[in-house]
Amino acid sequence: MREEFSSGAERPKLTRVEVEERLARGEHMERVDLHDEDLTGLELRGKRFRDSIVYGLQLYRGDGDPATEVRTDIRETDWTDARMGSIGAEAFFGRVNAEGAVFGFTETLAERRQRHAASDQPPTDLDSGGYHNFNSAEGNFQRTTWRNIDFGGGTGYEARLEGADLRGATFDGCDLAELDFSTALVNEGTNFINCRTDGLRLPNEFRSS
Q1: Which of 159, 102, 155 is nearest to 136 (CA)?
Q2: CB of 46 within 8 A of CB of 25?
Q3: Is the entire prediction scored with pTM above 0.70?
Q4: Which of 61, 111, 117, 172 has a C-alpha 20 to 30 A away from that of 24?
């Protein structure tokens, strides 16, 4: 049976310094609490953040000036079952290089919603399956994989993807309703598999007639 997740008490809270120490030892960041931490500029390529708490995580620093900004390399990272969304703190993945990274959850949205419906407790941020307040604006998300995610379209806390490069990305089992992809880069290799897409706004050249 799937382990339900309601609090972060069992996951050790790591500071940036502790993350740097783990990286120096070649370790991953699985089942840890990184919420509200700033890991901007660290070399995170290929690391696993599975089953961790990462809402409010910051991976970009700057005011948009290329001369002073600091970006983060998260290529080929794995964020499966990481708690990313929150109606409070924004997870800022803007302008990251995330090519080939994996995001999302092992539990399908249908399974999660059925479980919540059978419970007398409302879903929490940490068990919503949502990427609310996930900011990926202008990031490189080519060839990424997104599974079983509710992107919060129409809630006022929806994920932001303005200018994100989604060429070759695959969205599988996601709720993309009412999201705005109109300024994102998509192509014929951008796949939407078993996704809810009503109200999804795509660039003009990919809108159905």
Answers
A1: 159
A2: no
A3: yes
A4: 61
